[in-house]
Amino acid sequence: MTDLPVRYARWDGPGLPFTLVDTRVAAEPGPGEVLVRIDLATVCGSDLHTATGRRRSPAPSVLGHEQVGTVLAAGGDVRCQDGTPVVPGLRVVWSVTASCGDCDRCGRGLTQKCRALFKYGHELLDELAPLTGGFATHCVLRPGTAIVAVPDELPDEVAAPASCATATVAAVLAEAGPLDGRRVLVTGAGMLGVTAVAMAAEAGAEVIASDPDPKRRAQALRFGARETAATAADVGVDVEIALELSGHPDAVRTCLGALAIGGTAVLAGSVFPGPAVPLDPERLVRGLHTVTGVHNYRPADLQRAVDFLAAHHAAYPFAELVGGAYDLGTLDAAFAGAHGAEAPGAGAPRQAVRPHQAAATGS
């Protein structure tokens, strides 16, 4: 069996620099596995939270879970979510999770919470099988991973975030229910927020985007928001659907307080520890409100994400959401750039990493 030279960036814990590791792996994947060359990866907000210690994650590990790549080899008859055969040369994105398909949670359709869940970019490093994250030249996809083919016309910068940001938004909208003609509030106009604005607007919703940052509010208008708001007082009440995508406690309170009779709030931004938010049970009961949470997503959500981007990416400035031109050797700088992008008035919310780019050209 031949082997393949590969490189990955090892993360050793909060506050520590990345270490480049060169090694070799089997060029022929095992049964049900897929070997993919990673063409571009993006630094997600949860990568930042992990690197700074805000979010607990095992170390050492290979971070990264938003990426697009090209199939080099498949271990048998592996299929994409829509039935497309996974063959060498196929351009793909894949789910952040791999599920067993056999446990009780998978049987209930909760594959994203499988009892034997494997999460790309979130696992303890196994030096004998290290290709488990996006910040590497290659990744080995396990059985139980949702794989979606990427159309040629979809740029790498637009396709890569589908594996986390766009698919998560697709899952949020699926929980929200029908959107056509509904008044929808989106709190947080970062990467997920503006994606939700565009997807909800295309579904026929009247969208209000709430964010304290004026630059982000202006961006939300470019993604289809009907109006914007800086504070809870500016939002008012009587929205039929509220989508919380920032994780800020004030935004959660805004969503809960803005619901009309029969309204639904979908919370997806609170993926790191924070203060508890009070819930008025009388208002919930008398208002016939529904409050639900979304974490990770199902395979069908990833397919919907790619389908949406393929159909609408040219109508909205999705490519502007990804900046930078980093390589694995400048990954620390990419994380610094991504951290700066979270500041008010900053630039692109995602920073791009091209693992096969020559180190001398990194920025």
Explain what this protein looks like in three dimensions.
Residues 192-310 form the Alcohol dehydrogenase-like C-terminal domain. By secondary structure, this protein is of the alpha/beta class. It folds into two domains: 3-163 and 317-361, Quinone Oxidoreductase, Chain A, domain 1 (Alpha-Beta Complex); 177-293, Rossmann fold, CATH 3.40.50.720. The protein has eleven helices and 16 strands. It has helices at 45-52, 104-107, 156-159, 165-176, 191-202, 214-222, 232-235, 249-258, 281-286, 299-312, 331-341; strands at residues 3-10, 19-26, 34-42, 67-74, 91-98, 118-119, 138-141, 145-149, 183-187, 206-210, 227-229, 239-244, 259-267, 290-293, 322-326, 350-353. Helix 8 (249-258) links the parallel strand 12 (239-244) and strand 13 (259-267). The longest helix has 14 residues, at 299-312. The two termini are 37 Å apart. 50% of the residues are buried. The mean pLDDT is 95.
List the helices and strands and how they pair.
Blueprint: E1 3-10, E2 19-26, E3 34-42, H1 45-52, E4 67-74, E5 91-98, H2 104-107, E6 118-119, E7 138-141, E8 145-149, H3 156-159, H4 165-176, E9 183-187, H5 191-202, E10 206-210, H6 214-222, E11 227-229, H7 232-235, E12 239-244, H8 249-258, E13 259-267, H9 281-286, E14 290-293, H10 299-312, E15 322-326, H11 331-341, E16 350-353
Parallel strand pairs: 9-10, 9-12, 10-11, 12-13, 13-14, 15-16
Antiparallel strand pairs: 1-2, 3-4, 3-7, 3-16, 4-5, 5-6, 5-8
